[in-house]
Amino acid sequence: MADALLPALWLRGLTKTYGGVNVLDGVDLTVAEGSVFGFLGPNGAGKTTTLRIITGLAKPTSGTARILGIDVSESAEDVRSAVGFLPDVPGFYPWMTAEEFLRFAGGLFALPRDVLDERVPVLLDLAGLAGVSTRIGGFSRGMKQRLGIAQALVNAPRLLLLDEPTSALDPIGRKDVLEMVASLAGRTTVFFSTHILADVERVCDTVAVLDRGRVAASGPIDEIKSRHGAQVMDVEVDAGAQGLAERLTGEGWLTSAELDGERLRLTVSDLAAAERAVPAAVAALGLRLVRLDAGEVSLEEAFVELVGGAR
Amino acid sequence: MKGFGAFLRKEALETARTWRIWVLPIMLVFFGVTSPLFAKLTPLLLKSIGTGDSDIVVQLTKPVTYADSYAQWIKNLAQVVLFTVIIASSGMISAEKRAGTAILVLTKPVSRAGFVVAKIVSNLALLAVAVTLGAVVCWAGTLALFGDAPAAPLAYGTLLWFVYAALVVSVMALFSALLDGQAGAAGAGIGFYALTSTLSAWPTATAFNPAVLVGAAAAAMAGHAVVPVGPLLIGSLLVVGCASGAVWAFEEREL
Predict the structure, then answer these.
(1) Among B7, B82, B69, B65, which Cα is nearest to B34's?
(2) Between chains, do A110 and B111 touch, taking CB under 8 Å as contact?
(3) Beta carbons of A155 and B108 less than 8 Å apart
């Protein structure tokens, strides 16, 4: 049964087929307890389907999904007691107020009244909805999303599942939701599906990249970046950039070189070697170095390498 | 049936806060008021046609009584009210699926059986309260206008009708669990009503067809002693059967 040493989420060989199409094609994933885990993937990669299986809303064609060691298909209701979930478009009862909805959600977990009396004001405050007496039908999308996170926390879950929580929000709404998620780090395990890479870089410590129903890569963000992201170096000289490009061609560390006037963008596989060789080549050609920037690898570049090549 | 109580409380609150509280109760109270009124006024209106220079002579063979008021009441229950029940309950389950609220509820420790049964119970409770209210108003109106209004035939007849109405609600839960579209479920419900009503004209089927309960209700209100054991038994079993079918259908569906 549930144990602190068990992973918060463990998926093995998860497949889901709709009309002969494999939406999930053998998903293997382990999410350590306590992490803020980004589940990245382009639209249609299978992120929402994975979450629907994890939450018991859909059944896998094959494979196993375990939450805190409990098989989802065998004890779905027990599993859900330890989980909080926010769907991509949360549906609320428009005639309820935020407080009423949180109390209703707590009631579904059979939480005693005194626990709710204590917890609901804290969650309303966390969601920035304290003192809001308007019915949910009059809420903005951002308010609904923040309420969605608050209701997912009402049972103090050990695993919080968020499906694209920021995808339809304006910049302020997005910032508010990301701050809420960031504030949960260390208090619960957060599994955060999204296609917005900047959000993942901002709040997550570990990621998995899902591509066409398969996990293309998984691990700490820095590891994914260094393993899959090509590094970039921008070089600008006063004249003779063409000659510099020709001189560097054939270097083992150089993947590609793009010439733009007197500027060169070098894609490199070994940044340290490039940092030694480029100034030496500039000096050997008698050129004046105007600018040399070794660009930091972004998750976007790693993501594009993982899922973009075959598109 | 985990989560049944909490979800049923939500259903009760939703009934009180939304259009649901108005449609059936107001309709049934309206029919409770108008049934005795129409029964009393119709002969007077007909007689008025035969007055003055008109060549038409209207002769009523028997005086109007409480039975005419009750007949008007059951006629309304059998047609307009049953159609309203079908339409109002056609999105019982599918509407929550479409709105996304079912996902938030069912990703908590709530069983799908608890969800469906709470829906059926809340719909039946509202119908029971509304029809009781309407029947009481009808009885009071009948007493006021006719001076005689035995309560037992009205109560018994309304109860027989309610068993068939409960079956309609249960059938609608099944259709709403099976079909995503509210219009499709409403159409299937009207089809069920038409089929069972047509079958009630077939003598062989009267022993078990629950739709016979509507005719039996009219007979009971007219003062006849009727005990439709077969239709009552079959109707009650079908209520449970359709509710179980709705639970099964909803459990099999992916959200």
Answers:
(1) B69
(2) no
(3) yes
